[in-house]
Amino acid sequence: GVQQSGTEIPVKFELSQNYPNPFNPSTKINFSLPQTAQVTLKIYDITGKEIITLVNQKFNAGKYTADWAGLDGNGVTVSSGVYFYKIIAGNNIQTKRMVLIK
């Protein structure tokens, strides 16, 4: 799920490094939106294969936290390794790396 964190409106778009990282079994991904935007947040494996779409909805300006429990789109736990998370929010696109260790 996604929770809003705080009430202040960010001045710029930002995708934060997930925490904890490395993680097991779950991690949090924070993002900040200076204005309302359609947001897509997807997780990919090291080969670039899409694992799951965590977020695909419109958000008002604000700061948000998305949780990933290390599951793929079928609810199956993924294996240890390097993963990438990519956000598309309006014209902003950003990708960061994370590590799952079991």
Structural features, described:
- The model has no long low-confidence stretch (mean pLDDT about 95).
- With about 100 residues, the chain is mainly beta.
- Helices cover about 0% and strands about 55% of the residues.
- The strands form two sheets. Strands 1-6-3-2 form a four-stranded antiparallel β-sheet, with no helix packed on it.
- The protein starts with a strand and ends with a strand.
Poorly predicted runs of 5 or more residues: none
Q: How much helix, percentage-wise, in residues?
A: under 10%
CA(first)-CA(last) distance: 22 Å
Class by alpha and beta content: mainly beta
DSSP helical segment count = 0
**Strand percent estimate:** over 45%
Helix and strand run: EEEEEEEE
The overall pLDDT, averaged over residues, is: 96
Choose one word for the global shape.
Answer: globular
Described by strand count, sense and barrel closure, the largest sheet is: 4 strands, antiparallel
How many DSSP E strands? 8
Strand order, main sheet: write it out: 1-6-3-2
Radius of gyration: 13 Å
Task: State the main characteristics.
single chain; 102 residues; four-stranded antiparallel sheet; 8 strands; globular
In short:
The chain has strands at residues 2-4, 14-15, 27-33, 37-45, 50-59, 62-68, 81-89, 92-100. The protein is mainly β and 102 residues long.
